[in-house]
Write a structure and sequence with these properties.
Length: 392
Amino acid sequence: MALPWQRNANPAPAAPPRRRRDRRRQPVQPEEARRQSARQQEEQRRQRLAITIGVMLILAIVAIVAVGYYREFYEPPRVMAGEVRGVRFSMGDLVDRIRVLQGIRRYEGGQVDLSVIPFQYLQNLLQAEILRQAAPGLGLTVTDALIDQRIRDQFYPSPPPGQEADPGQLEREFENNYRNFLTQVRLTDSEFRRIVEEELLVFGLFEFLGRDIPQETEQVEVEWIRLAPDAPVIPQDVRRRLDIEDFAQVAAEVGTPDGFADSNGYVGWVPAGALPQALDQVLFGDEAQELQPLDVGEISDPVFIQEGTYILRLISAPEERELSSQMRQRVNIQLVENWQNQQVTRGSQEGWVRINFDSDRYAWVADQVRLTAPRVAAPQQPGQGGPPNQGR
């Protein structure tokens, strides 16, 4: 019997060592290597293409934004809108001036019609500069004293009748009225003085041209029907009604007052040159264009002008008559407008007046004015005075 310490004397032979797994990768066949390399290259190419396309898209978006910003905000204000002998007015100048007009109108309790104002006010800017340059030759001079007096006439307070007022208090109220006005319409004193100068030059031209208006002149008696631009009736339909209906009755039914005719369409005696050219030609003819005037009792076809559509009827033949105060003023106003329009036309033909304005720029100006409407608290109260008329 083997003793305990003798049991493992002859151990069993050890098991042969396990064979170690050959973890080495089998060599890749040349064809497979080429396929893997091709796949890697294709993947890299796709990644480069995706990055290139992404960068190009980002650059395109940036370019579109930059071009849009340039065209919308940077370029338009600097584009020339008009020029008179080298004196340029940019689109930004036009917007600024219309904002002034808008502020003044709101200060007075009115509004600016942006459907017609942009082009009209560009014309006003050009006409004002033409007159400023022509003033010395016409003998027109506007001094600082005249500008001061005009401003005081507009803003100096009027005390209630029968009430005494301290001159010092009135002076302080005048200065306060004027400062408040400049703040509300966003103008400096020098900018507003320039506008007043333009107004005074127009007044001077009014007087200059009015000196040659005769006391008596050939006139015709007329009645008309004015249809507003937004009238719900068709002018040709109104004209056909006049062939079978009474003129005064139709005028009372569809006509719109215009400051000349009464409710039945009667205007009265009208001299040549008192009305816009299109109406003047109907009543007095135009030899240069071989247009014959209306005969007595004849009714015209509808005449379309900016203020509306007119249908005229001649009541009496031309005769020499003294001018009424209203018609004298109308002739004078028309003389000023004709002079201004003729100067713009002449300057455009001779090249010293340039206008660069189209529908896109028109829309841009209107949008800018709408976006930045001036803050005006409330219309002025009676006795506070007010600014000169900027609407011309």
